[in-house]
Structure formats: C-alpha cells, structure tokens
Predict the structure.
Amino acid sequence: SQQGEEDPQALSIQEGENATMNCSYKTSINNLQWYRQNSGRGLVHLILIRSNEREKHSGRLRVTLDTSKKSSSLLITASRAADTASYFCATDLDSSYKLIFGSGTRLLVRP
Amino acid sequence: DGGITQSPKYLFRKEGQNVTLSCEQNLNHDAMYWYRQDPGQGLRLIYYSQIVNDFQKGDIAEGYSVSREKKESFPLTVTSAQKNPTAFYLCASSIAPGTGGYEQYFGPGTRLTVT
C-alpha cells in the first residue's frame, strides 16, 4: 500500500507563478524527502525534512511538514520552464533502508 | 566524476530470457538499492543491500535476483519468472541510514522491454 500520496497528480502553471504540491502519509515517520525526476531520467534529491522540523528552505524551494496532519507540502517559487518534471515525496519510517515513494505530481511550467 | 552508472539505457529481450542490468557507483556508499517504476507510478523497492555480500528483499522481489560481491557493484537479474518485466529500473545508493536520515543518489535508469 502507498504510504505517501501526492496531490495534485498533475499541475500546469505559467512561468513565474508559484507551484505547490502536497504529500500525505499514513504512519509516523522519521523524516520525509522530496525528489525530482525529469522525464525518462533518474531521481534527484531536493530536500529532507526531519520529523521534529516544521519548515525548511533551499533556494526557491520551501518544504513544510505537519506531523499532526501527516502531511507535507513543497512550494516552488517563481517557477521556470526548467522546473517541468515529476516530484515525489518519500517517507523514511524508522531510519531503515527503506524509503516509501508516493506516485508523484507531474508539474508542467509553460513558458 | 562521481556518481552512479547504469547500463544499458535501453534493453530489449524476448520473453523467457533472463537479463542482467548493471549498476556501478563510485561514491563509496555502503548501501545500494534497486527500484522498479511503471508508467505514471512511483518507485517500488525490489532489493536492497546494506553491505557487501548481504542483501534483502524489498516489496516486489519475486522474479528478480541480485548479488553484491563488490562495494561498487549491485547487478540485478530479471528472470523469466517475472511475469511483467517491462518497466523502468532505477538503481540508487546511499550512506548507511542513521538517526539523521539520508538521501539516495540515483542512476539514470534502464528501460527494459520484454516482448
């Protein structure tokens, strides 16, 4: 069963706008990670947020984590056409070797 | 140039044949992983290895086999027992997970088509 579910499944925005995607999960986590995947390529790690953190920033990325609601959001500000990709959340339940990936949000940024 | 390499990028096989996908890393990572990705889906864990000469089944190990004879290499064999082998296969590596969490580094993937 899927631990993480992203919402929306697909998102289309104009260049310069902000993009927000959400991830909900079912059980307690140790940390939550966001990855990006360009079409037909491998995944690239974007950001990791630990269960005792509420917000984290990296460049134009802002990630929030609400453990009471079992949800996380990824905000990309001032989007660019090059941000077009699929974005996945992955949950680490207990610092084991197993990350559980959601099904992803496909983001299209129109020039 | 550090990273993970997977070869080949595209692989075509006839049904009933075993096929081995290559994964090599020069990041000095102890842990390595194999994932399967189907169109429009997330990643599902096939096998993972914490250390040389040791590996564990993931969520969908049936029809697959692996070996970890060297730290740098973690080949995946898709056997004829795998009912739906056509998919995109991703290899990853990481440091050993600790209390602080860890990130996984991914290769470029191998797209396997079995007809």
Observations:
- Chain B has a mean pLDDT of 92.
